[in-house]
Specification:
- The structure holds two protein chains of two kinds.
- By secondary structure, chain A is of the alpha+beta class.
- Chain A has three helices and five strands; from the N terminus they run H-E-E-E-H-E-E-H.
- Chain A has one domain.
- Chain A has helices spanning 3-13, 53-69, 104-114, and strands spanning 18-27, 37-40, 47-48, 73-78, 94-102.
- Chain A has a five-stranded antiparallel beta sheet with strand order 3-2-1-5-4, sandwiched between helices.
- Chain B is α/β, with parallel strands linked by helices.
- Chain B folds into two domains: 2-73, no CATH class; 80-245, Rossmann fold (3-Layer(aba) Sandwich).
- Chain B has helices spanning 40-53, 90-99, 130-137, 157-167, 181-194, 218-234, 242-261; strands at 2-8, 19-21, 31-32, 57-63, 66-73, 80-84, 103-108, 124-127, 148-152, 174-177.
- A five-stranded antiparallel beta sheet of chain B has the order 3-2-1-5-4, with no helix packed on it. Chain B has a five-stranded parallel beta sheet with strand order 8-7-6-9-10, with helices on both faces.
- In chain B, helix 2 (90-99) crosses helix 6 and helix 3 (130-137) packs parallel to helix 4.
- The chains are: A alpha+beta, B alpha/beta.
């Protein structure tokens, strides 16, 4: 349907486990809107973006935890720093990012548990 | 429509991270493992509404102290750009549109131009008569849909007109046509006088095509066209090159109507 899911499928076809991050809600000024998605690849071949910068770095770090234990998590990205020479995330808003693991084994497990 | 349980407590705790895939066709059976129990019918209703509004949403359900938060993700097909004319502007435009995640079709009646070699990233390159191929591209449906964007950049205004007449009343998202202000005015006058086209039907056409960014080279013009397409799709505030021509045409019509009405 869309290139994002084709890319996800091709990672799964390679037998990889990847994490998918989705912006599920936002408040104030944020770099991307609800529904923006990113694939976090275990070796750094990430696809897409949830806004870049430090916020995205937090998402990637948490995604590696999600990849490790398979438990989905929500990361709240705060981009509300005062504007100074040192501050980094200063869009003005916050956003919630849901992160989950995708792997062929997970899908097979889910299919079994629902059967 | 792709549903994900992004937070779940109490009786729903086991649903966290589960999914449901729902089609837009009535009667299509949902696939997946997300099971909200007694709330499932409400979940499906909310999914249909989000689908109708083409808008992602997050909804939290509550029952007897348990909470379930579901993210509804609308799976819209990629927007489809049809470029009629495979010349100098079409080549960079097709490449830029592909980067912007459009499905891209290029059409020209000259096979030496409409070739996959000239458009390596295009999803479809068609060599054939403009009008006939446009009809075929509708894929058996009576009209192009609101997911379709059309750019008319053929080698001559007679071909642009041919394409324009074919698609003018289709509910497409965008029709843009290349040409200087002088050429566009002449083409519109011709259509009104000789083809008896109601002038108001031409108001939707973005011509001269593109945003007013002072573009000069073919690649720059491709950027100016693509930015107008994005501006239209996202409801942005940027000013199109067509505005002046359009305002003049509407003002002239209003004047004529007023004079006649007196």
């Amino acid at each position: 349907m869309s290139t994002f899911y084709h890319q996800l499928q091709s990672f799964l076809d390679e037998g990889l486990a990847v994490a998918v991050a989705t912006i599920t809600s936002t408040k104030g000024s944020v770099p991307r809107s609800v529904g923006a998605k990113m694939i976090i690849h275990p070796y750094g071949r990430h696809v897409g973006t949830v806004g870049g910068g430090c916020g995205e770095a937090d998402v990637i770090r948490t995604a590696l935890d999600v990849l490790a234990d398979g438990a989905p998590r929500i990361v709240t990205v705060e981009l509300t720093d005062e504007i100074t020479m040192e501050s980094q995330g200063v869009c003005g808003g916050t956003m919630q990012v849901f992160i989950e693991r995708f792997a062929v084994a997970d899908a097979a497990g889910a299919a079994r548990s629902s059967a | 429509m792709w549903l994900t349980a992004i937070a779940a407590t109490g009786v729903w705790a086991g649903q966290l991270g589960r999914h449901l895939l729902i089609g837009s066709e009535a009667g299509e059976f949902p696939a997946g493992t997300l099971d909200a129990g007694a709330l499932q019918p409400r979940l499906l209703d909310d999914a249909q509404e989000a689908l109708r509004l083409r808008s992602h949403r997050e909804t939290t359900y509550e029952a007897a102290g348990s909470l379930l938060t579901v993210f509804f993700e609308v799976q819209a097909p990629a927007p489809h750009l049809i470029v009629a004319g495979a010349g100098h502007i079409a080549a960079p435009l097709a490449a830029i549109a592909r980067i912007c995640d459009f499905e891209v079709t290029v059409l020209d009646d000259r096979p030496q131009y409409a070739s996959q070699a000239r458009f390596p990233t295009a999803d479809r390159v068609i060599a054939g008569p403009f009008r006939e191929e446009l009809r075929k591209l509708r894929g058996g449906r009576p009209q192009f849909d609101a997911n379709t964007f059309l750019v008319l950049v053929t080698r001559g205004h007679q071909h642009d007109i041919e394409c324009l007449l074919e698609v003018l009343d289709d509910p497409v998202a965008y029709i843009g046509m290349i040409g200087s202000r002088r050429r566009i005015s002449a083409v519109f006058n011709l259509l009104e006088r000789e083809q008896r086209i109601d002038p108001a039907r031409l108001d939707r056409v973005f011509a001269p095509i593109g945003l007013d960014i002072g573009a000069q080279t073919p690649a720059e013009i491709a950027v100016c066209i693509m930015s107008e397409i994005i501006n239209t799709m996202r409801g942005g505030p940027a000013r199109s090159l067509r505005e002046q021509v359009r305002e003049e045409r509407i003002a002239r019509r209003t004047r004529i109507t007023t004079v006649r009405g007196e």
